[in-house]
Structures are given as C-alpha cells and as structure tokens.
Amino acid sequence: MNHLFTPLKIGHLTLENRVVIAPMCQYSADEGAATDWHTLHLGRLALSGAGLLILEAAAVNPTGRITYADLGLWDDRTELALAQSLAVARRYSNIPIAIQLSHAGRKASTQKPWDGGNFIAADAQNGWPPVAPSALPFTVDGPIPDELSVKDIVNILEDFTAAAKRAERLGIDAIEIHAAHGYLIHQFLSPLSNTRDDQYGGNLENRMRFLLDVVDRMLAVISDKMTLGVRISATDWVDGGWDLGQSIILAQALAAKGCHFIHVSTAGLSSQQQIPVAPGFQVPFAEAIKQAVDIPVIAVGLIDNPKVADEIIASGKADAVALARGILYNPHWVWHAAAELGQQVTAPPQYLRSSPHGIPSPFK
C-alpha cells in the first residue's frame, strides 16, 4: 500500500507526498497583519510532513475580510508581517507553501466564530458595508450588500493581481484562488447569488467571467515559476444553485486557461443548503471533475483515515487529499499515517526518538 506517500507534480512543484494541508482561517490577525500566533501556527504545520501547506485565506483588500481579524495581503504592512512569520517556518522546514487569496463578498463584516460569527453592522465597531455581485443577503435577516459596479469589479480584479504579485515577492510557491464556500467569487458563479444582467451575470459564461478574469490577470503578472490553482465548491446543495455539471464546465475552462490544479470542496453559499455530511462525502465531486480535466485534483472533506486516503489515490478518485480540522486536532496525522502505511515522511531530527518502538520509522 503505497499511493498516498508517492510524489506528485503540481504545476512547477513536485510534492513529496499527496497530503495537503487545506487553508484554515485563524481569525488572529491585526488589521490584516500576521501576528505571533501565525508564527507558532505555521511553524507547527510546516513540521507536519505534509506535501503542501496552504496558508489560510488572505483578503485582497480590507473589505474582503470575513472578520476584522482575518489575514490580509493588500499593502506593505501586511506583506512584511507575513514575511516574518514565513521566515521562521522556513528556517526549519522546506515544505512547499501556498497561499489562498480571497474576498468574502456578502459574507464579510462578522464576529469571530468563537464570538458567535454574527454579522456586525456597518456603522458599528469592527464593521463595514459588505459588497456582492447582487444586492442579495446571505441570510434572510442579514445585511443587504452593496451591489458592485463594473468599475468596482475592475478594482477588485486589480486587488487580486496586486496580492498575487506580493505572494510571489514573499517567495510563496503557489497561489490558490478562493472560489468556494460562498465567498465573493462563488457568489458570482451561483445563480442563487448573482442576478446581474451585464457581462458578469445571467448565463453560465457570464457568471464564470469574474473568476476567469482573475485567472487571466494573475497569469499575466506572476512568473512561470509560480503554481496557480483554484478552490471551488462543486455544489451549493440547493436546488437551482451551482452544481456539479456547471463545476465540470468551469474546471475545463480553468484547465484551458493554464491553471495547475483544482481543489474540490462544496457548499457555503446559502443558508438553505442541505448537506449529507459523512466521511469522504465530497470525494465523488472530486472524482467527477478529475475525469473531466487533465490537471491534478485535490479532494477534501472528513478524510481522516489513512487507509481511506490511500484508497482515494489508488483508485484514481483524486490526485491528492487535503486535511483541515483533522490536522488541527492531530498535527502529527501525517507521521501517524506514514507509520500505519509503512511509509516515510520528512520530519525534524529533534523528533526522531518519538517513532514508536517496533514500527518502522516514519521519518527520514
């Protein structure tokens, strides 16, 4: 059994294994700037043995944050702060590092999850007016976002481009565009949140336009050494919303544009979603998309059993598996998985003595 711990080429990167750490917001930034928490958090994940570490969603402008404590990458201050955290992680690890670039759209201006996650009024402390493709709230009693003009859209496209340039300047290895979980790009994609009648709304081609414009603009400014991918929600889990058929068309368009990978999640757009949550419940969506494109596809969602993860790779359902909450709960999941499957991962020599007696060392 040796599939999860085989190398994988994604764009210009060769991953040591097929375990990816998915981006997870920490809600611990200072006006967009990384803090000491990020240094501790990234340092721990960098020693995980995973093949790729994707940093949490970084907002491309202040309005694009989910909460007032979200990470950002929109000016010299936020860039410098992240550079300092990355420097510590890189001192002891050579794991490839990606960053997810994002805009929250109508899901912006909220409390931290552990403070309730409720929307904050635009005129209250730590609040601001959210924006969206259409003036439709996320929840029935939620704030009505300001509808973006075409000029506003162009400005946000420029913000994504500027953030991509900053990411490359930081020496980050890959960029993941966040087009999932009900945030701004997903809001453009879904007919449930996009009722525009211009070039950014209406038919599928128009609803995909904003994301494809982001891709085009990024590819125009990043070097040929940067790997670029997209995370999507393959379905809204709501009748009449974004679905797998549209996701496959989008995935094919992204591959044709020159994207290097697609990271397949689901949901997040509507409070009416009905999700059949179970271990691996999103894998069939990744499998369907993988059959339609010739670039690597990452599956995610309650994949916490090493043998199940290995089977996903062995059966060709996905090229890599991503862990989020599971690796927060068990930061050494990759080490344990390698030991269980009789394989090896890179780990710091300071931890060599922790290999269980009688089990082949998962370290090299």
Automatic annotation (TrEMBL):
It holds the Pfam family Oxidored_FMN. InterPro entries: Aldolase_TIM (IPR013785), OxRdtase_FMN_N (IPR001155), YqjM-like (IPR044152). Keywords: Flavoprotein, FMN, NADP, Oxidoreductase. Signal peptide: none annotated. Its cofactor is FMN. Residues 4-341 form the NADH:flavin oxidoreductase/NADH oxidase N-terminal domain. This is NADH:flavin oxidoreductase/NADH oxidase. It comes from Shewanella algicola. Gene3D superfamilies: Aldolase class I. Coiled coil: none annotated. GO terms for molecular function: FMN binding; NADP binding; NADPH dehydrogenase activity. The lineage of its organism: Bacteria, Pseudomonadati, Pseudomonadota, Gammaproteobacteria, Alteromonadales.
